[in-house]
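Forum: Protein Structure Q&A
Topic: Joint prediction for protein chains with partners

I've read a bunch of threads here and the consensus seems to be that you should model interacting components together rather than docking separate models afterwards. I'd like to see that in practice. Below is the full input, 565 residues plus whatever partners are listed. Could one of the regulars post the assembled result?
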Amino acid sequence: MLQSRAIAFAFVAPALLFLAAILGWPLVQAVLLSLQDVRVIGSPGAFVGLSNYERVLGAPAFWRAVGLSAVWVLANAVLQTALALAAALVLNEKFPGVRIARTWIIITWIVPTVVVVVIWRWLFSTSGGMINPLLLQAGLIERPVGFFATPWTAMATLVFINSWRWFPFIALMVLAGLTRVPEELYEAARIDGANAWERFKSITWPLLAPTLSVLAVIGTLLSFNVFDIIWLLTAGGPAGGSRTLPVLIYETAFKGYRLSEAAAISVIATVLLMAFAILATRTLEKGEER
Amino acid sequence: MSRGLGWNVVLAACLLFFAALIGLPFWWVLTGSIKIPQEIIARMPTMIPHSFTLQHYQKLFSASDYPVYLINSLIVATASTVLTLLLALPAAYAFFRLRFPGRAIAYRTILLAYAFPSIVVLIPLFGLFAKVGLVDRLPALILVNTAFALPFAIWMLRSFLAGIPKEIEEAAVMDGAPTLTLLRHIMIPLIAPGIASVGIYAFITAWTEYVFASVLILSDAKRTLPVGFSGIIGQYQIDWGLLLAGASVAIIPVVTLFAFVGRGFVSGLTEGAVK
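Posted by a regular:
Agreed with the consensus. Here's the joint model:
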């Protein structure tokens, strides 16, 4: 028994120590840093208590970033989950090439983000991009649109691009949930004369709803952290219209040279995210008990 | 299972929509990379290229450091994959089978690490790496990417282990096999598809990582593909041909890898998720 316990520790310790060193210890350092007045990496700082937090919480730029992050996360969760659900329902059917489709749908997720950025920056651009001519031809717009030119179109375009990258990944998770719905249920409903919509409403949806809510939570956590797509496409602009919390943290630290203030924002962001994660898990678990 | 005609039409329409949504952007990029510059920025874009040139690829490989970025990325991604598996396999097995104090708490903490905002550790990690002389060196990125892939890797491998019939493991224990032998000769071969899936996950995580690679690496010769490539975006007066060629080349390694093990990866991902 004692020996097996030693083996268990020997197995777990490397991974745990590794995570503690690369993620845990820096997290502690971030908290310490947020209580000092360090401006550039490597320079010494004095202890200033909670004054960084006071300054951050009193800054309109911070609250704007919180609001934009909330919009970003919510819009992505809705769009991603909707696209993922539709795609999963299609992939759950039988048609020629379904196995290939199930594998290759995820291609948007396996290519580097910077490639995603180049693809869409080009397609949305006004010189040679495909989107504007397509919309013009369809009569939806009268003149070419600068998608990254105004805050709201930029935000909407970024949400679309990020959801495009992530929805296939989530669709495969939804598909995993769908394949667990017993075929007999559908057969029985069909014999009772239920049409496709009724079958979806009374069988698929109730059985799938728990999976979808879990995925919405995971999707929220993942999209909160998205930095590279926003940074490379709009750098938080125009006029700060896409400056979400990760962008604000990066700017404060590496453009504004206020390292400690950036650390304070990141600590607040972590607390907000963890609070959301715990609250969401609790709500989901309660929902399951009912 | 039979479908009505109406349902078939809806299905076909949805299929077409998703095929276009995912396939068309890639088609346009790949074909765009072999068009001459005038055709790329033409007012009316062409679906099928009217011209053919390899000039963008030539420029990519001769006038930019792209090949260096490519090699750096391959080194970082491969090493991260190996390190992730070496750390995740024993840990996943311990969390799955062995009993030890603090097991539940440790497992939950690891899952929590998957959710927390990575940008928080960016600044302190730079300071930490500066102290041990790892800034501007590829091992720094290998360590970081491994840390990012590890929580999900442990979680996924654990659910694969849970899929092994208990009798097989019990028979081996009965025969008196030591834990390490059991893991090496029985469990690992049985979850080979799971290991492949986790390996791909780790590879892709490292292959696509941008933020840490942009801060922890300072010299141009050590940049990874995402960072080096994003530098090319700004460096030239938007040369779309060059960018499209660069994008196409960046797609090739992961797509090649995926062509061999993609199906296993996807089923691994979904099977791991439902347990």
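Residues 2-34 of chain A form the longest helix (33 residues).
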